[in-house]
Each structure stands twice: as structure tokens, then as C-alpha cells.
Amino acid sequence: MNQGIKQCQNCEQDFLIEPDDFDFYEKIKVPPPTFCPECRAQRRFLFRSSRSFHKRDCDLCHKEFLSVFQKNTKVLVYCPECWWSDKWNALDYGQEYNFSKPFFVQFKELLSRVPRIGIYADTPRIINSNYLNLAGPAKNSYFSVLVDNIEDCYYSFYTVNSKDIIDCAMISHVESSYQAFNCQDFSCY
To answer: Which of 51, 139, 164, 169 is positioned for an S-S bond with 176, CB 3.0–4.6 A?
Structure first.
């Protein structure tokens, strides 16, 4: 089959589909895409955002907690305390693979049944800190993602072993800094 130019149904930009791509789609029995590669990537990354926080109830203990999943999410979401507890058994969600059904159909069914952790945080070692996700030990910190061993850290991303940080990203072993980016072993007084 010849290469084809299609218009993205989302952004309305033209994108190219190569002949090899058409062969691949035919082999796996799926239609050619109607979204451009960039819009498809955005859709893949939308299933969960690590920086959007929502109050919701834990589907196991029913207490309200902060999660990256919205209240109306159609999957089971557990608070970190329940997720790491012995209140549920992950082996209960196992299933046999059915060779007569497509893999992704079965995978979607599995994903819709298995509980997810609402927020990744080392809750026993997080002290006086709110709106943290993908977080290890933290003290007196606020609205930071992908952090570990931080203190007095605010609005930061990918921050490790740092203290007195505001609005920084990709830093390690940094103290007393504002808007630092991609730094390590650095102090600003």
C-alpha cells in the first residue's frame, strides 16, 4: 500500500502514514490512526497525571484522601495505607490468559479490576507536607512531585536530598535555592 497523508481529527494537522505502517496495522488487524503521533502521545499520557491532585474516597476504607485519580474514575483506587496493608490480596486479581481473545482486550479488563494506589508517597516518613506525589521522606514541604529526602521544599519537581527549595526542578543536594534547574551539590546563601 502507498503512503498516506491523513488529517488529525483532533488538531486538524496533516500527518504521514508510511507503507510499512499500513502493513503493520493490517497484520495486527487495527484500522489506521485518525490522530497524529503527537495527539496520540497526549492521549496515552492522560490516563493519570502525577501533578493533578483530587480529593476522593479510598475504595477500600472509604476515608477521604488526596489522589492523582479523580472521584469519577472507573477503576478501584486505594489510599497508600490500604494499598500497602494486608487488607487485600493482590493474588485475588490474577486471571488466566485466554488465547482466543486479543491481548489488549484482556489487559484492559485486568486494568479495570486491579486496584491502583491513589498517590505514591512514603506516608509514614512524610511530616507536615501536603500535595506530594512520587515522594520519599519529606518534611515541611508542599506541592512537589518526584521528590526524596527533602525539607522545606515548595513547588518543585525531581528534587532529591535538598533543603529550603522553591520552584526548582531536577536538583540534587541543593540548599537555599529559588528556580534552580538541573543542579547538584550547590548552595546559594
So the answer is: 164
